[in-house]
Design a protein that fits this description.
Elements (H helix, E strand, L loop, with lengths): L20 H14 L12 H8 L3 H13 L3 E4 L3 E4 L21 H10 L19 H12 L16 H12 L10 E4 L1 H13 L5 E6 L5 H7 L3 E8 L2 E2 L1 H11 L3 E4 L13 H14 L2 E5 L13 H5 L4 E6 L11 E4 L2 H15 L4 H12 L3 H25 L2 E3 L8 E6 L6 H10 L5 E2 L11 E6 H4 L2 H9 L1
Helix pairs in contact: 1-3, 2-3, 5-13, 7-12, 9-10
Amino acid sequence: MAKTQQNPIHLALDRNTAVRLVEQVASGLTALIEQGQLRAGDRLPSVRLFAETHSIGTSTVVEAYEQLVARGLLLVRRGAGFFIAVRGVPASPLLSFLPPEPVIDSAWLLGEMFADERVPIKAGCGWLPGKWLDGEGLHQAERRISRAPGTQQVGYGHPYGYVQLRQLISQFLANWSLDVPVEQILTTHGATQGLDLIIRTMLKRGDTVLIDDPAYCNLIPMLRLADLNVIGVPRTPTGVDTEALDTLARLHKPKMLFTTSVLHNPTGTSYTPACAMRVLQAAERHGFWVVEDDIFRELGQATDPMLAALDGLQRVIYVGSYSKTIAPSLRLGFIACHRDIARQLVHTKMVLTLTNSEITERLVHGVLTEGHHRRHVETLAASLLGAQARVNARLSEVGLTPFTTPRGGMFSWARLDGCALSARDIADRARQKGIWLAPGDFFHLSPSQETWFRFNVAYSDAPELFAFFRQL
C-alpha cells in the first residue's frame, strides 16, 4: 500500500523574481527529494491542496508536477495522485564506459571526433568554439519563438522551407548580384544534406565527377558511396588549376564539378575573378554542372567572386549554410538553383526526410532579423583573420610552410618538410600529448607524398601545439 506524505509541504516562493513560479515549485520539490525529506513512495499533496497552501494557481502546480514526472522524480497513478519515484542506483565509476583509444583515420574524423572530449587542443576539428558563435542572437530568437502560437510550431513545414527565411536568403544572394526568386531556393538539413540531395538527384552510378584536390573530407566518401568515378583537380592559392580542369574535363567527360569558391576547406583559399571566369567557361565548353559549396561566404571578402552570380544559375547549383556563423547544432543549409532542378531536389528531399523542422527555420529567421547578426559576422570574420595570421606566423617558426597568405576563415593548410614520419604518425603522437591534428590524407583522394595538415585557427593558437612541432 502506498505511503502518504504526513507533513505538509511549505515552499518559500518569491513572486518578485524573474524565475517562474513553476520553476520555483519544481526546484523546491527537487531539493526536498535530494535532501531525503521526501522519500520514495511518499505521496505529494493533491494539486488543489498544494495550490491553496501556497496561494498559487492549480495550473502552476500541475505544470511543476508534470515536469518532475518527465524528469523521473515523480510517478503519477491514475485516481491516486503523484508519488515520489524510486531513484535508480548510481552506476559505479568502475563500470563506466570508456571509449577505446581512437585511431586517427577518416572514420574517426567523421564520427568519433564529434563525441570524444578527451583531447583538449582541437587543432584539427571543423567547428568553431561556442563563444565565437552567435549564442546571444540564438537565445533572443528562442525567446521570440517561445512566445509564438503553438499552432506555428506543431505541423510539418513547407517542402521548400519556411518562406520568410527563403526570402531572406534571396535578399542575401542579391548582395552578390544574384537575383533568385524564392521558388528556386530550398532549405536542407545542413549543407551536407544539400550535397547529398544533388548527388542522389542528378548523378547515377558510374558517372564521373571532378572535385577540388584537396577537398572537403565528407564529400569524398559521399561520392564514393554513390559509386561515382571521382577525379581530383589540383587546388592552387588562386582557386582550382584551370589548365588541369580543362584537360581532365576533355579526357573524362565529367557530369559535375564540386568546388568551393570562398575560403576553401581545407586550404583556406578563394577564387580570383579570373579563375572563376575560366571555370565557368570550361563548364560551358565541356557541358558539366558546377556545384558551388559556399558555406563560408559571410566570412569572406566583398570582392570574392560568386560563381552562381556570374553564371545566373544556368550551370551552377549553389549550396549555402548557417552552421558556421550561427551554430552547427541548427543543421540548416540551403540550395539555390534553376527552377526545374529545384523541383527535382525537393522531390528527393521529401522522399528521404520530408520537410525541414520549421522551428529551426524560424529560429534562423529570428537570428537573421533581430539586428545583431551582421555585427556578429563582422566581428567573427575579423577575429578569424587575426587568428589565422598569428597561427600562420607561429607555424612558420616551427618548421611548417602555410599554403597561402591569410585571407580569413577558419582554416590554415600547412606542409611539414624534413620529417621522416607520416602525417598520420605525427597525428597519433600529437593525440598522446592532448592535441588533435587533421592529417592531409583525410582531404586527398589518394595519399600525398607530402606531409600536410589542416589547422582550425580558432583552436590552434596554443603554445602546446607549437612546442610539439618544434620537438619534431
